[in-house]
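Each record in this resource describes a single protein on a pair of labelled lines. With that in mind, the following record should read easily:

===
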Amino acid sequence: MSAGDLPPYAGRVALVTGGSRGIGAAISRTLAGAGAKVAVNYLHSEAAARSLCASLEDAGGVARPFRADVGRADQAAALVEAVGADPALGPVDILVHNAGIQHSAMAHRMSDAQWHEAFAVNLHAAFYLSRAVLPHMRAAEAGVIVFIASASASVAHAGAAGYIAAKHGLIGLTKALALESAGKQIRVNAVSPGLTQTDLVDALSPPERAKLLRITPMGRIASPGEIAATVDWVIRGATYSTGNVFHVSGGVAMG
């Protein structure tokens, strides 16, 4: 097989946080299908992570599950180290921070624990993971980081103050890391989904779902695969883009 016949991500190692279900699983499948060796991070869904990795390997890919609470600095660093030490994988070339959490509570009723958890998973984890992967990427003068943000960072809605604030911060972090890393040919971008068919959406009541559809100009819910396709394009197609936010929200975030 000539170099031109190799899959797009041949020889590259991708770490996908929250990679076992929903958008994360779709991203893991997309990257593995294009030749990446994929580290699938999970916290609670071990069975789903192992099942996904088994299916990816049955299809001829390389995938390994890794449990870690990436909102904790020690576990995020240990995760990156474990992926790099795995003989089937190696140092991370592509980081996709997809893990996220949202608590439904008005600000005056939101607990300290809910507020801090929203920032730990949605924002702090992005920093911890980036801090861990950047030394390798900077030495190699190559690498891609993609943060999964949210249309909520552009169009606020009631009952999610912690989530919205953390996602705003994630976009700021995207721009800061992009500026610091551009000279080393490392690209850092964010993909900002709108209403997507995930466990969170499945749990919505019919009135809640109808309300969200009303504010979505395209009038439908995205599939996880549509978000994954955008992430794939940002990684291998948007080669001269860094510090940007790519909206995949059915028109919610237009402005």
